Amino acid sequence: MTEITAYINRDYKAIDSGENIAAVQDFFADVLFSHFPVLEDGIYIGSIAAEDIETFDLDKKITHYRYALEGFYARTNMIWLDVLEVFARSQTNVVPVLDDANKYAGYYELSDIIKFFNETPFLKDLGGIIIVEKGILDYSMGQIVQIVESNNGKILGAFVSKTSVDTIQVTIKIALGSMNEIIQTFRRYEYEIISEHQEDNYLNNLKERSDYLDKYLNI
């Protein structure tokens, strides 16, 4: 699989802090970026928002509005999940990338990171999805893995997809193994199955009994 750093983009030069506002407005008019990185003497000093630039005086320069720059960025050694978190936390579709020496390396576009995500085995490979829920103090990711693998299942990926004060939900993608046996084992360990599955014999039996009872009562 391609390394995420292959998606570092340099198609557009970073904005210089000495650039005048009119030119930067013209730049944003031609692209669909929500933000774009600003450099001063080659050093990254923050990103300017497209929405903000519309409110600035045309005859001034970016440097006059340093207070409006947003300081988010990713590192070249970040894994893709951490990069995706930067996008989500910053509510942007462009994230500047810095190396370990804080040198500006380019930028990531959200569409490219989504494309990278789509190429991961979690999404690309065939498999079944199970969403389980348990008390937040009682669940164990190690136990979840053990339950799947004890039924000859292979996990393609798992992540915490929802939390509350008392409970936690984990989404698991499974490549191999009997889905029904895995589901029943989760139940034996007091995990609630949130997702619906055709292979779930327990729920299927309950549904059949419910349908039979309905017919009986309607006679």
Description:
The chain starts with 14 loop residues before the first strand and ends with a helix. Helix content is 34%, strand content 26%. With 219 residues, it is of the alpha+beta class. The longest helix is centred in the last third of the chain and has 17 residues, at 201-217. Mean pLDDT is 88; it is low at 209-213. The strands form 3 sheets. The chain has a 4-stranded antiparallel β-sheet with strand order 8-9-7-10. Helix 3 packs across helix 4.
- In total, how many beta strands? 10
Return the average pLDDT rounded to an integer.
Answer: 88
Number of helices: 8
The percentage helix is: 25-40%
Separation of termini? 61 Å
Q: How would a crystallographer describe the biggest sheet? A: 4 strands, antiparallel
In short:
With 219 residues, this protein is of the alpha+beta class.
